[in-house]
């Protein structure tokens, strides 16, 4: 693997996280728990999809084979996606959507803060712009974590169930492989060790504040760095990609 | 749809379009607490870059004049011309005033 | 009081929430504004239906932003209705129990991607004609909400037309998809303006109160006049054999919509009435524990303002 291939793979990984998560969030538009929150969550989905779009466009440039952001989003198969299994988990109830979101938001916050110092100017630029959006996302999902934890017995239980369910998918966010090793040497990629420490601290803090028990999970799920996913991803892609595949080459 | 269901309470939103400008009422929304009211105001009323600062106020905290007040409240000010600079005559030769 | 109110209308002055107003004026407004709000909210469904299947990232972003705008419109209108003394809960309850109406157009299904462009071009286009007029409606909060809405609506019709352009000038399959969508949406769109003037008693009263400023037939005619050339540019055929330019009237003559179908859809028997309402009720019911949690949390934090 050379630097260009590593950078392509690394950029896709970030892009796919945003693309798949926003695809999940978008399913809430028009179905939120009340109108104001419906609009708020759609804003977040739009931010994240915007980030993913910039990253996919850049991935296409890095690859240098003339693939556009849409080619990369709509014409890759299940084993060519590198998002974490966490973001492809179903929306479930609003507690699950919020817990998933909070786990990702806190990760993104620390990750992109570090990435803003990347020697790759494009990634650094996208990161710097994204941090402002992500700071707000953490504030939004974090305040809901506290509302659910400190709200009713039911909301607390639902949040606890969601956290228990999702916890085993959180470890994958910090995995590093040969792509990271190569790009860290170049000063491009982020060392996940520090991101994990910051994530652990902030998440465990809010779980305590919300009176939620931090789960003890012996085995974290893994595989997405090799394009291995949960069964959910195939369905997400089937829905998302069908139209450009029915009329190949069409402009929309 | 139970009887004790709630949609939160009504808040009024005031936006400052640019730093230094006055805050202007731009609309209302529902929220359950202060932080949510602030966030909802941001998500609802600044999606097109309309503001740089927000006030949110519970609607119940607003005291307003009523239509009957129109005369006694506001008409007395109409004939107080001496409050306006144009009431005073300054010789043309005097500048910068 | 009644004279004072009439005089105010005569002078084209706005009526404000604390002003005296006839009971029927208030009732008419509550009904019209909340129906309008429900239409925006229900309108999120047929278009939201395609967000996860939008065929490009740009199209997905645009559609999400548009559907979100419609939610905002519903919200501005619900708060305008609240100034007349109804609560959000009351008006939502009326919707969920089937007592309140909303625009029938949203009871038609969005079957293909072309329907999304068609809804933007035709349905938003028709809605905008109505909404532009309502900016000058006599009730202040309604008028102010409409001014804000019209500003936001300006991109909706344009993005719809742009999307139809891609199809009409695209592959043969895409063009066929666009023509099929136009065939299905044309007549329901014309019916959006409501029954003909002779069959619309509410409408006459609304014009007297300056809530509405133009009649259903006037608006419908204006819509047809402006849309024909837009369809011609696309090379699409409007599915009306009676459509032709009338030199004398300086307007298009056009056929009669199927008013029986209109009545059936209004009465609840359109293709998607049940699905639309069920989706709203489901979201409301599933959101109940979320709202209860937020209420309880605010109580514990001692942040509850006296309930409005
Ligand atoms: Fe709208
Ligand atoms: Fe619209
Ligand atoms: Fe609309």
Explain how this protein is built.
- The complex is a heterotrimer of chains A (252), B (97) and C (308).
- With 252 residues, chain A is mainly alpha-helical.
- In chain A, 65% of the residues lie in helices and 0% in strands.
- The two termini of chain A are 35 Å apart.
- Chain B has helices spanning 34-45, 70-74; strands spanning 9-16, 23-31, 53-58.
- The model of chain B has no long low-confidence stretch (mean pLDDT 89).
- Helices cover 67% and strands 2% of the residues of chain C.
- Chain C is built from 12 helices and 2 strands, in the order αααααααααββααα.
- Chain C has helices spanning 2-10, 23-48, 57-82, 88-96, 113-134, 140-168, 172-191, 201-208, 216-234, 259-269, 273-286, 288-300, and strands spanning 244-246, 251-253.
- In chain C, a hairpin with a 4-residue loop joins β1 and β2 (251-253).
- Chains A and C meet through α2, α3, α5, α6 and α9 of A and α2, α3, α11 and α12 of C.
- The complex binds fe (ii) ion (3 copies).
| Total E-strand runs of chain C | 2
* Estimated share of beta-strand residues of chain A: under 5%
Instruction: Give a count of the beta strands of chain A, DSSP E runs of length 2 or more.
Output: 0
- How far apart are the first and last residues' alpha carbons of chain A, in Å? 35 Å
Bound molecules: fe (ii) ion
Distance between the termini of chain C: 28 Å
Order of helices and strands of chain A: HHHHHHHHH
Largest sheet of chain A: none
Shape of chain C: globular
Please estimate the helix content of chain A.
55-70%
Poorly predicted runs of chain C = none
Global outline of chain A: globular
* Largest protein interface, residues of each chain: A-C, 48 and 48 residues
Secondary-structure element series of chain C: HHHHHHHHHEEHHH
Strand order of the largest sheet of chain C: 1-2
Number of alpha- plus pi-helical segments of chain C: 12
Mean pLDDT over the full residue set of chain A: 97
Major β-sheet annotation of chain C? 2 strands, antiparallel
The percent range for helix content of chain C is 55-70%
Radius of gyration of chain A: 18 Å
């Amino acid at each position: 693997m050379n630097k260009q291939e590593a950078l392509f793979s690394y950029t896709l990984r970030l892009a796919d996280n945003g693309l798949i998560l926003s695809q999940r969030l978008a399913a809430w538009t028009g179905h939120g728990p009340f109108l104001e929150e419906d609009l708020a969550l759609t804003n977040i989905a739009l931010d994240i999809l915007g980030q993913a779009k910039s990253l996919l466009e850049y991935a296409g440039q890095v690859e240098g084979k003339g693939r556009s952001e849409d080619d990369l989003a709509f014409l890759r198969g299940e084993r060519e996606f590198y998002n974490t299994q966490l973001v492809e988990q179903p929306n479930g109830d609003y507690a699950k959507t919020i817990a998933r979101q909070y786990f990702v938001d806190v990760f993104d916050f620390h990750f992109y803060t570090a990435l803003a110092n990347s020697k790759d100017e494009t990634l650094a630029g996208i990161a710097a712009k994204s941090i402002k959006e992500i700071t707000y996302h953490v504030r939004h999902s974090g305040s809901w974590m506290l509302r659910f934890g400190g709200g009713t017995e039911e909301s607390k239980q639902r949040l606890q169930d969601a956290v228990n369910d999702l916890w085993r998918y959180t470890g994958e966010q910090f995995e590093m492989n040969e792509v990271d090793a190569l790009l860290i040497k170049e000063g491009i990629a982020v060392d996940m060790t520090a991101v994990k420490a910051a994530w652990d601290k902030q998440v465990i803090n809010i779980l305590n504040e919300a009176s939620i028990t931090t789960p003890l999970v012996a085995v974290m799920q893994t595989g997405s760095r090799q394009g291995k996913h949960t069964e959910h991803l195939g369905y997400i892609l089937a829905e998302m990609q069908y139209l450009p595949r029915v009329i190949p080459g069409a402009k929309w | 749809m139970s009887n004790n269901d709630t949609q939160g309470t009504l808040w009024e939103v005031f936006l400052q379009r640019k730093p230094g400008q006055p805050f202007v009422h731009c609309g209302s929304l529902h929220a359950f607490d202060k932080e949510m009211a602030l966030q909802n105001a941001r998500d609802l009323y600044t999606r097109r870059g309309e503001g740089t600062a927000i006030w949110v106020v519970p609607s119940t905290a607003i005291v307003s004049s009523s239509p009957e007040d129109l005369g006694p409240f506001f008409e007395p000010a109409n004939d107080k011309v001496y409050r306006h600079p144009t009431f005073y005559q300054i010789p043309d030769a005097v500048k910068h005033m | 009081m009644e004279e004072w109110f009439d005089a105010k209308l005569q002078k084209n002055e706005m009526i404000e929430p604390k002003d005296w107003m006839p009971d029927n004026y208030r009732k008419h407004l509550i009904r019209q504004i909340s129906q309008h709000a429900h239409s925006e909210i229900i309108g999120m469904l047929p278009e939201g239906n395609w967000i996860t299947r939008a065929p490009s990232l740009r199209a997905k972003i645009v559609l999400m932003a548009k559907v979100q705008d419609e939610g905002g419109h519903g919200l501005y209108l619900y708060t305008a209705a609240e100034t007349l003394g109804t609560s959000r809960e009351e008006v939502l309850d009326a919707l969920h129990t089937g007592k309140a109406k909303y625009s029938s157009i949203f009871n038609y299904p969005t079957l293909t991607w072309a329907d999304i462009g068609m809804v933007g071009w035709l349905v938003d286009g028709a809605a905008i004609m109505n909404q532009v007029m309502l900016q000058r409606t006599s009730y202040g909060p309604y008028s102010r909400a409409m001014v804000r809405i019209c500003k936001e609506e300006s991109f909706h019709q344009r993005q719809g037309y742009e999307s139809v352009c891609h199809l009409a000038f695209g592959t043969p399959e895409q063009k066929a998809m666009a023509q099929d969508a136009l065939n299905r949406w044309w007549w329901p769109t014309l019916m959006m303006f409501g029954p003909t003037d002779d069959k619309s008693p509410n409408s006459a009263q609304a014009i007297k109160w300056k809530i509405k400023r133009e009649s259903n037939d006037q608006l419908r005619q204006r819509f047809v006049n402006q849309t024909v050339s837009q369809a011609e540019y696309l090379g699409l055929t409007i599915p009306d054999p009676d459509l032709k330019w009338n030199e004398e009237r300086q307007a298009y003559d056009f056929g009669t919509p199927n008013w029986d179908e209109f009545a059936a859809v209004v009465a609840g028997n359109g293709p998607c009435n049940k699905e639309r309402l069920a989706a709203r009720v489901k979201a409301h019911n599933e959101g109940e524990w979320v709202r209860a949690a937020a209420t309880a949390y605010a109580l514990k934090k001692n942040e509850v303002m006296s309930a409005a």
